[in-house]
Amino acid sequence: MKKIEVVQNILKANDYIAAQNQQLLNENGVFAINIMSAPGAGKTSLILQTIARLKNKLRIAVIEGDVASTLDSERVRSEVTDVVQITTRNMSESCTLIANMVSRALERMPLRDVALLLIENVGNLICPSEFALGEHRRVVVSSLPEGDDKPMKYPVIFADADAVVINKVDFLPYVEFDISSFQNALRVLNPKVAIFQVSCKTGIGIENWCSWLLTELEASRQRSPHLTSPLKGEE
Amino acid sequence: MKKIEVVQNILKANDYIAAQNQQLLNENGVFAINIMSAPGAGKTSLILQTIARLKNKLRIAVIEGDVASTLDSERVRSEVTDVVQITTRNMSESCTLIANMVSRALERMPLRDVALLLIENVGNLICPSEFALGEHRRVVVSSLPEGDDKPMKYPVIFADADAVVINKVDFLPYVEFDISSFQNALRVLNPKVAIFQVSCKTGIGIENWCSWLLTELEASRQRSPHLTSPLKGEE
Question: Which domain holds residue A47?
Answer without folding.
Answer: 2-223
